[in-house]
Write a structure and sequence with these properties.
The chain is of the alpha+beta class. It has one domain: Ribosomal Protein S5, domain 2 (2-Layer Sandwich), CATH 3.30.230.40. The protein is about 35% helix and about 30% strand. The strands form three sheets. A four-stranded mixed sheet has the order 1-2-4-3, with helices on one face. A four-stranded mixed sheet has the order 5-6-10-7. A two-stranded antiparallel sheet has the order 8-9. The model has no long low-confidence stretch (mean pLDDT about 95).
Amino acid sequence: MTRTATIERETRETSIRLKLELDGSGEAQIKTGVGFLDHMLELLARHAVIDLEVEARGDLHVDQHHTVEDVGICLGQAIRQALGNKAGIRRYGHFTLPMEEVLATASIDLSGRYFLVFDVEFPATKIGDFDSELVEDFWQATAANALCNLHVLIHHGRNSHHISEAVFKAIARALRMAVESDGRVSGIPSTKGTLDA
């Protein structure tokens, strides 16, 4: 069964269409109007080995916040939808990733419950014209809508661009592990019998 989802979100602030295939090849077609977010989403697709298409129009004359957050909302909804009842998946994923001088760890549980721990400090408030704090806002929106536990830790790092890349790549690798099929599990990987609540 192909694990795909298409999410369309229309508000007064943004218009977004996002298509996700969990069993993809790492292809990305991204156009959000926020160059740095496009770059991070391309990294995400490549390292999670998912296919991701995003087309977003937002009120960038205000700032980038609504666009970044709403793309995160759509990504989280797409992950949740594409996973279905989560039968046969590994459920948990974790990865520690070096990125130049940065070391990042991400751990995820596709539990059906939301919790985010984001222990990341950015030395610079801006990465180009991108507000560094939007990285956390993006992942908060994604985790809240995917209904997963997500823990992210930067052990050390100096360059804010590298820190952001390490965060996206580590989460991508953890997500890749969590959504993979586990040949030893045929049903829901929970003693409760469900991962929906």
